Amino acid sequence: MVNQIKISPSILSADFSCLGKEIEYIDKAGADYIHVDVMDGHFVPNLTIGPEVIKDIRKSTNKVFDVHLMIEPVNPLLESFAEAGSDIITFHPEAENKPEKTIDIIRGLGCKAGLSLNPSTPISVLDGLIDKLDLILVMTVVPGFGGQSFMEDQLVKIESIRTMIDLSGKKIDLEVDGGINFNTAPKAIAAGADVLVAGTATFKGGPSEYSENIKRLRGF
Ligand code: DX5
Ligand code: ZN
User: Fold this and answer.
1) Cα–Cα 20 to 30 A to 73, which of 41, 57, 207, 211?
2) Close Cβ partners of 144 (under 8 Å, ≥ 6 residues apart)
3) Which ligand is nearest the CA of 44, by number?
4) pLDDT averaged over the chain?
């Protein structure tokens, strides 16, 4: 069963010269989560921000910090990301040998744990892990950059994971990330997603548009 749709704006598309203000704007505009893309220039070919920045922008909102780690390795930095104020920490299974151990560390630090599936990652990676997860993130672009096109062939994966979550009876967010806009959001929702990450589509048009953008992405 799909819950109410949540919008998690990716701050990758914000104006970094006034990041704190941008976060205040999207908070007021109705964002549910704040999606923070952490890239290391190694696991993905782009470099963004780390725990120090997260700690500072944490002061700008009380909303859930949905931290998407695109880094390898993951475990050595988890404590820093938790202490910086992350609420949900999501990682890619390819970045650690024992994903179950990484999930345990994240939970032990008092955060919720998410696992992210690249377009090429099979859903079998979830075998034996689903009971330990708070969030499953389906990438609908190859991670690394904002502004890419939504990969429609991932919709069937979203549908399959929705079925798995419902069968598990657990409260697990099914989040979709990459190329979400006013046209693709309804497709992701119809496939069973209940959290939509949106960078380009949220921040388009500047602060005066954020509220309308978020409403339209959510579908009302
Ligand atoms: C891609 C990131 C996404 C991305 C979303 O590697 O994980 O969060 O920035 O950006 P849009 O919504 O512009 O596709
Ligand atoms: Zn992301």
Assistant:
1) 57
2) 39, 44, 45, 46, 70
3) 1
4) 97
